[in-house]
Amino acid sequence: MKFTRRLLVLPLLALFTAFVIVSCTGRGGGDAEGGDAATIRVGSKDFTEQFIIGEMYALVLENAGLQVERKLNLGGTPVAQAALESNQIDLYPEYTGTGLLTVLKLPVNSDQEAVYQSVTEGYKEQFDLVWLEPSPMNNTQALAMTQKASDSLGVKTISDMAAKAGELVMIGPPEFEAREDGLPGIKEAYGDFELAEYKAVDPGLRYQALVDGEADVAVAFGTDGEIAAFDLVLLEDDKQLFPPYQVAPVVRQEALDANPGIADALNALAPLLTDEVMQQLNYEVSGNQREPAEVAKEFLTQEGLIEG
C-alpha cells in the first residue's frame, strides 16, 4: 500500500514542481532587466484595519498605472509573512511592533525610530524585504476608559490604574491575561497589582460593555474606531511598556526593482494615516457596517490621491 501511494505521489510531485517553476518565471516581481512588469499582488491580514489599508495600497498602485491583484484577508502575521517569503504576494501592510516582536523576535523597545530601524535592517538581512515609510498612526496596545469614569476615579495613566486596581474591573480578550504584553507585562512594569475582576470576553463585546458600565477599563488598540465614536480616554503608558505599532508597506525587493513606482505611490499615502483618521475609517466599517473597499476609495478620493 505504501509503495502504491509512493508511485502516485512522485508523478504528482513532478507536475506540481513544474507548475511552480512556470508560475514563478511567468510572474513574481517582474524582470528587473527589462520587459513587462508583472501584476503586483497586494495582501493583508484578517481584520478591519488591514482590509482598509490593503485596499488603499491596491487603489493607489492602480492609480499609478500598475496592475494589481488583491489577496486580502490572508490570515494572521505568520500567514502573511510566509506569503511574502514564498513569493505568493509582493507586499502587505505590517506593524513595526509586530515585525520587531513576532517576526524578528527582538526585545521590546518603545522608541519609534529605533524600532523602525531594527525592522528595516532585520527584514532586509534575513528576508530581502523592504519596509517603506511608516505612517504616524500607532495601533499599539492600550487601555481605555470612558471620560466620565476617568475623571471621577482620577485615572489618567496606567500608573494611576495600577494604584487603584483593586477597585477596577477590566474587560478584554482572554489571551490578554497571559500575553507578555498583556496583564503579566503590565504587572512587571507597573507593580504586581490585583484587579477587582478581569472579564474575558470576545473582542467585539469590549466597548459596549465599557460604555454600559459593566467594566471600568477596556483592553484596546490605539486606532480602534470605537475610541473616537464613544469619546473614550486612552490611559497614558507613562512607563512606556508597549512598543510602537506604526503601519508601513513591507515589499519584496524583487518587486521594487521591477516596479520602482511602488515606493513613490505608497510613500505618498503614508503621512495621511494618523490615529484619528484610522479610528474614523475603522468605525465606518465596524460601527456603520460599510464595506472596507468603499471606505478606502472615499478617503483616497477626498485626499486627492485617486480620482473618484
Question: Which tags fit this structure?
Answer:
308 residues, alpha/beta, five-stranded mixed sheet, three-stranded antiparallel sheet, 14 helices, globular, disordered N terminus
Task: Write up what this structure looks like.
- The protein is α/β, with parallel strands linked by helices.
- Helices cover 47% and strands 14% of the residues.
- The chain contains 14 helices and ten strands.
- It has helices spanning 2-26, 48-63, 77-85, 96-103, 112-127, 147-153, 158-163, 183-190, 206-211, 225-229, 253-258, 261-269, 275-286, 292-302, and strands at 40-43, 68-71, 91-95, 129-131, 141-146, 169-172, 197-200, 217-221, 232-234, 247-252.
- The N and C termini lie far apart (61 Å).
- The model is unreliable at 1-36 (pLDDT under 50).
The residue fraction in helices comes out at: 40-55%
* Succession of helices and strands: HEHEHEHHEEHHEHEHEHEEHHHH
Q: Helix count, per DSSP?
A: 14
Spatial separation of the terminal alpha carbons: 61 Å
Helix/strand class: alpha/beta
The overall pLDDT, averaged over residues, is 89
Tell me, briefly, the overall form.
globular
Q: Taking strands numbered 1, 2, ... along the chain, how are they ordered across the largest sheet? A: 7-6-8-5-9
Largest sheet: 5 strands, mixed
Number of strands: 10
